[in-house]
Design brief:
Layout: H1 2-21, E1 25-34, H2 38-46, H3 48-51, H4 56-60, E2 65-69, E3 78-82, E4 89-98, E5 102-111, E6 115-127, E7 130-140, H5 145-148, H6 154-175
Antiparallel strand pairs: 1-7, 2-3, 3-4, 4-5, 5-6, 6-7
């Protein structure tokens, strides 16, 4: 019994130490330069239904159940999805719009792991016919997920999807010409 208590004490100490050194937050983002004016790009970013046309997750499950509520392109609009194992279930809500420059959204993941993140898309004019989109999200790692993040990378898990989505956006914009 004495050894069991020692082992449990050591495991508890390791768990406490890991919880102190574990990352408490994450910020993942990717950018792409586009050969298109900001007005044309903004129409792809502002509307939740338009985002589905270049979303990497929509392409991972084209049969996912989707519902839209509110006025698309305005604060309060919500996109709900329920898909396969790769996309899970959740919703995103537009929380802030700086017209032509930035859109912020609250991402609420319901399955496979319940969590919340803040998503944003920034649009920058480089010159009259060129623009830059930065797509990212931030959030906090709550215990015990924070300890798991010592061995996993949110950037590696989501960064490739952001890159794919931005390339899809670039392709879609080029196809419209």
């Amino acid at each position: 019994m004495y050894y069991v208590l020692i082992i449990l004490g050591v495991l508890l100490a390791i768990l406490i130490i890991l919880s102190f050194i574990a990352p408490k937050s994450y910020h993942v983002y990717r950018s792409v330069e586009l050969e298109h004016p900001t007005e044309k790009v903004w129409e792809q970013l502002k509307f939740l239904k338009k985002q589905q046309e270049w979303s990497p997750w929509a392409r991972k499950d084209p049969n996912m159940d989707q519902k839209f509520t509110g006025i698309d392109g305005e604060v309060g609009a919500v996109s709900y999805w329920n898909g396969n194992k790769e996309v899970g279930e959740g919703e995103q809500e537009i929380t802030k719009i700086v017209e032509g420059k930035r859109i912020e959204q609250d991402l609420r993941f319901l399955k496979p792991i319940k969590s919340e993140s803040d998503c944003y898309m920034d649009l920058e004019e480089l010159d009259n016919n060129r623009s830059k989109v930065t797509w990212g999200f931030t959030g906090t790692n709550k215990f015990p997920m924070s300890i798991m993040m010592l061995f996993m990378s949110m950037d590696k898990m989501v960064g490739k999807d952001f890159e794919q989505g931005l390339q899809n956006l670039k392709h879609n914009l080029s196809s419209e010409i």
